[in-house]
Please model this.
Amino acid sequence: MVKITDVARHAGVSPSTVSYALSGKRPISDETRRRVQASIRELGYRPHAGARALASSRSNVLALVIPLRTGIHVPVVMQFAVSVVTTARRYDHDVLLLTQEEGEEGLHRVADTALVDALIVMDVQLHDPRLPLLRALERPSVLIGFPSDATGLTCVDLDFRAAGELCVERLAGLGHRVVALVGSPPEVYVRETAFAQRVVQGFTAAADRNRMACSVHPCEATPAGARRVAEHLLREQPALTGVVVHNEAALEPLIDAFEHLGLRVPTDLSITAICPDELAAALRVPVTSVALPAAELGERAAELLMRKLGGDTAVPEATLLAPHLTERASTAPREAL
Amino acid sequence: MVKITDVARHAGVSPSTVSYALSGKRPISDETRRRVQASIRELGYRPHAGARALASSRSNVLALVIPLRTGIHVPVVMQFAVSVVTTARRYDHDVLLLTQEEGEEGLHRVADTALVDALIVMDVQLHDPRLPLLRALERPSVLIGFPSDATGLTCVDLDFRAAGELCVERLAGLGHRVVALVGSPPEVYVRETAFAQRVVQGFTAAADRNRMACSVHPCEATPAGARRVAEHLLREQPALTGVVVHNEAALEPLIDAFEHLGLRVPTDLSITAICPDELAAALRVPVTSVALPAAELGERAAELLMRKLGGDTAVPEATLLAPHLTERASTAPREAL
DNA sequence: TTCCATCGTCGAAGCGCTTCGACGTCCGGC
DNA sequence: GCCGGACGTCGAAGCGCTTCGACGATGGAA
Model:
């Protein structure tokens, strides 16, 4: 293994000069820097990560905690993870993957051993047990999702409340008067996952504001679950003409189920969804949707973390991405009666 | 931060004794060990990862390179990643996430800086440009998938060739004489992704052996792509009664398309697939399938790597998991003519 | 009883890097 | 012409841990 002293000898300077030439933390003459860089290339030098971490108390690694639980759409998690990794790399950092399963002990472990410099936590619940820990930790963190009490924490998310509202407002603008929300699987609500609850709030508030009749229906992420909800809706709300879907996996089966039951989309039923754009656009009936910008969220989270690591104390505590609705083929004005 | 000297002082022993009590690399009396452990708990000591890595030249971190490219089913990648992380944790290791995008330079970086002790590489192609690098690297690695020439490498995968054969044999056993393979998207074959090619080989070999008429059709991972293939098959192979699907995303749309075209599954058309069991079982028509054991592959890969790290020189170079077919509702005997 | 091996512990020497203080040099301002 | 500061570099001191050699004590074999 070639080390910094080898480079120093080869370039005819001291090890500290090599270090400064690399880090830029002190001025080094162009001439010297060039010699050092040439030696580095020639010898194939790579600084030892452990030694660097020990001396500088920076590992240049971020922890990313990903959810495993049911009811969470996997491709979204993956998009998010990839975007965190890509962004971290732009700042010369790597990403350590932790599973939710490891729990608070896992966070403690990687933080206390200085394995990572900072943490990103996904799938935050309203009353997440990890919050006190994250507040107390000496290392910065960013949460994806907003807990009930976010003081002292940095959070990033799509504004799900506004997303729910936007879907309803769109349907209201098209003249629909009776709407339903087909939401995430029941366990997601039981766990008080923040984003799911916020959609419900936004949905309900906008429906009330527009004096629309509305109802909320958790839905299993399976074709059978979607069919069940569709049948239930037809039975209980025959006047229904607008549906908001916040459940990636149920979206397509739900449309199928409605059509099997004799409802044409969008002729008889308008549908809006909150889901990744790629999904909405690829369906048999492209669905009008509010995008779930997983990649952007990941990038934002990583960037906020880098700012915090850089000592920036003016990092915003809350970053809510405004929802953006794309019109597609699943919505139409309500037919005049 | 509490360090090993603090623990040593508190327990009334030397730092090296604490280290040995922790690692077990030298005998320590029960009495002393207990005192040390009590001090560790009381002080909340956690060894500094960087210091440990520097002194021991072991970081206790594995690199996992995940594919980003189109045509790869995301949930499978995720399952795999989670299973690697979980298994690694059992051996007190963590997992660093790299994207394919980083390429060979990324592998070099994490290996040469000693950021990781070993690597797991997914989505291996027949002539993967990373192979020479992996062979030359001083750190052990395990590949998921078999390249064309696997000498000097440790590889793990489902036996896709046998899986393709098994699907055909099953159809043959049911009396089908004309079969088609609906495969991965074209770009997957263009890249020479190993597993896709192997399925084709197995499929073709088994069909030939059984004197069946057969054809192979790459298929986009979209509903539209699936419809196109279904229509094409009906037009070009009207006698078709058996289909093997090796394309997770196209599976459901393909069945829909066949049924829209007037073919009942399994009455008119038997379908077998190679895909994760959860997917096959959850479809409207549960599909007879060869399981894609992502979790088991991840576990195997991680375990092989731990053995190599442990100095085991008798680690098998090739681990091919035997395919396992589960009968479901999508297959039936060919109707007598 | 003697000898040697093993057990249990200690001290010291690094592992490869960063960083701090120091020092000589050069330059501009007065 | 002198002084102060910036520039460019060096040497040395760690960062917190593991590991090697050493050493006294203990015990079984001869």
Summary: Chain A has a mean pLDDT of 94. Chain A has three domains: 4-47, 61-158+294-321, 160-291. Residues 74-90 of chain A form the longest helix (17 residues). Residues 4-47 of chain A form a domain with the 434 Repressor (Amino-terminal Domain) fold (CATH 1.10.260.40).
